[in-house]
């Protein structure tokens, strides 16, 4: 039976690469399943089995409280930032500071974000900037980070997408017709941390622990940095 990783989607590219490297080195088949952080939390708490879990600390804390992860197996994978994405043919606006970013959203034909962790942050940010009601008619919510890029690519240039930079890079690599304009300005940036841990319910505890530790290793960090996770 293959080792199973259930992981948040924002770290998809790095997790997939580390899993493939581990599979070759250890000669253990590894299957990776990705989901948004809220869905991942629901699935694990509902009893879905896995060998390794990769999730933000808030979810990991809950898993720890419920005995879902093996004691002492939790390690830091990396941090993800939110970026501004547009159609590849669009003229990129200035988003270098909060005022410029606000102006770019006001001039957008649509503002696209997801229902996952980054999307929850974007909703709070729009409230903070006083834009939630103003942009309501042009706001588009989709289920995942990849769906943000797909929605922006499917629209005429002018729509602005807001998603984890690591997910933007994955879709660009796949040929999606979008481009990364820039990260959110530092003063309003949202940094999401991701941890890896072996599942307490793993049927393969030793390989699961080894894989969890590999995901949090120094060698893996180089892979994650190349994928947009620092």
Question: What's this model, at a glance?
Answer:
The protein is built from nine helices and nine strands. It has 230 residues and is an alpha/beta fold.
Structure description:
The chain has helices at residues 12-26, 37-45, 57-65, 98-106, 117-128, 145-154, 165-173, 205-215, 218-226; strands at residues 3-8, 30-35, 52-55, 75-87, 110-114, 139-142, 159-164, 178-183, 191-198. Helix 1 crosses helix 9 and helix 6 packs across helix 7. The protein is α/β, with parallel strands linked by helices and 230 residues long. Strands 1, 2, 3, 4, 5, 6, 7, 8 and 9 form a nine-stranded mixed beta sheet that branches. Helix 1 links the parallel strand 1 and strand 2 (30-35). The chain folds into two domains: 3-78 and 194-226, 3-Layer(aba) Sandwich (D-Maltodextrin-Binding Protein, domain 2), CATH 3.40.190; 79-188, D-Maltodextrin-Binding Protein, domain 2, CATH 3.40.190.10. The protein is elongated and about 55 Å long. It contains nine helices and nine strands.
| Relevant CATH superfamily of the largest domain | Periplasmic binding protein-like II
Amino-to-carboxy terminus distance: 32 Å
Strand proportion, as a percent range, falls in 25-35%
Shape: elongated
Mean pLDDT reading: 95
Determine the fraction of residues in helical runs and give it as a percent range: 40-55%
Number of helices: 9
Task: Give the helix/strand layout.
Blueprint: E1 3-8, H1 12-26, E2 30-35, H2 37-45, E3 52-55, H3 57-65, E4 75-87, H4 98-106, E5 110-114, H5 117-128, E6 139-142, H6 145-154, E7 159-164, H7 165-173, E8 178-183, E9 191-198, H8 205-215, H9 218-226
Parallel strand pairs: 1-2, 1-3, 5-6, 5-7
Antiparallel strand pairs: 3-9, 4-7, 4-8, 4-9
């Amino acid at each position: 039976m293959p080792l199973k990783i259930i992981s948040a989607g924002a770290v998809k590219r790095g997790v997939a690469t580390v899993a493939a490297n581990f599979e070759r080195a250890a000669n253990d088949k590894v299957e990776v399943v990705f989901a948004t952080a809220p869905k991942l939390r629901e699935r694990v708490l509902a009893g879905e089995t896995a060998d390794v879990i990769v999730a933000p600390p808030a979810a990991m804390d809950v898993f720890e409280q419920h005995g879902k992860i093996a004691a002492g197996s939790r390690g830091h994978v990396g941090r993800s930032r939110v970026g501004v994405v547009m159609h590849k043919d669009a003229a990129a606006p200035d988003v270098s500071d909060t005022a410029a970013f606000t102006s770019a959203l006001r001039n957008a034909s649509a503002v696209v974000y997801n229902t996952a962790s980054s999307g929850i942050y974007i909703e709070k940010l729009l409230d903070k900037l006083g834009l939630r009601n103003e942009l309501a008619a042009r706001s588009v919510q989709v289920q995942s980070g990849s769906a943000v890029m797909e929605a922006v690519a499917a629209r005429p240039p002018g729509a602005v997408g807001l998603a984890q930079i690591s997910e933007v890079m994955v879709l660009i690599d796949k040929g999606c017709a979008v481009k990364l304009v820039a990260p959110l300005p530092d003063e309003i940036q949202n940094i999401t941390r991701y941890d890896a841990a072996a599942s307490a319910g793993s049927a393969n505890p030793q390989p699961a622990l080894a894989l969890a530790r590999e995901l949090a290793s120094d060698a893996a960090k180089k892979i994650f940095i190349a994928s947009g996770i620092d």
